[in-house]
Amino acid sequence: MDLLGTKTKIKNDTLDPLSVIIKLFIYAHKPVGTKLTIGCNKINLQEPGIFQGTVRKLYGDKKNDVNIILFPIIFACQSYLGNTKYRGRFIRVFVIVIGSFDILKETYQGNEIIYNIDQLKSITQNFIDNELFDPNILYSSYDSPGGKIKQGIYSHINTIWTDSRLDVIFGMIDEILLSTSNEIILALVNALNVYMGCVDMLTHNLITNL
Q1: Which residue, among 100, 88, 86, 89, has the nearest Cα to 21 in the 3D structure?
Q2: Contact between residue 160 and residue 204 where contact means Cβ atoms under 8 Å apart
Q3: Alpha-helix runs per DSSP H in the chain
Q4: For residue 170, is it within any domain?
Q5: What's the number of domains the chain is made of?
């Protein structure tokens, strides 16, 4: 019996880089204790609760899964913060993502994975501070032959982001950042997460057909 789809869940690092960043933006609005679950080419956010541990065990989730988002984050930083065309529009999202890493560290406090989370934060912060930052300084295999193959795959996946889809997410992000009502912010964050579910389906279909 395929209990809760556990046999069909595939953990891999083939994630859409921008989706990773948007999910981390959403994560910044979640409580400490929220964990990432990765499978079928997407990230889901698992809020704390009495069944969190049971569900994570059923799905084979582990804290070290945080490492899966390293390469996609570097690619996203280089594509959107290391590119003058996109930097002005995207930098505010990445600034919020810095806070997500702090929440992740607090969630995994006392575990060695916090050092990996520090690396994610350091790479992102370096790109925020300097659009010409070279990721190879902190991650030497980024431009290795295998790294180049991954970059090519991510570039292809990135084609799902049409201008109209970017306008949708930035419309919601603008509302979230400008709102002073916690109730409205929560509703907008939930709406953004629902929309990202549609993007996840597009991403999975694209990767399946590679």
Answers
A1: 100
A2: no
A3: 17-27, 52-59, 70-76, 84-107, 113-129, 145-157, 163-178, 182-208
A4: yes
A5: 1
Give per-residue pLDDT as tens, 139-195: 889 999 999 999 999 999 999 999 999 999 999 999 999 999 999 999 999 999 999
11, part of any domain: yes
| Per-residue pLDDT reduced to its tens digit, 32-46 | 999 998 988 999 999
**pTM passes above 0.85:** yes
Considering the domain boundaries, does residue 65 fall inside one?
yes
Which pLDDT does position 61 carry in this prediction?
Answer: 76
All residues at 6 or more sequence positions from 107 whose CB lies less than 8 Å from its CB, including other chains:
32, 33, 34, 35
Structure tokens at 146: 């295998």
Instruction: At 196, list the tokens.
Output: 């990202």
* Domain annotation covers residue 208: no
Nearest to 207 by CA among 72, 106, 93, 107: 72
User: Which range marks the domain in which residue 128 is found?
Assistant: 3-203
Query: In the numeric block, which tokens belong to residue 1?
Result: 């019996």
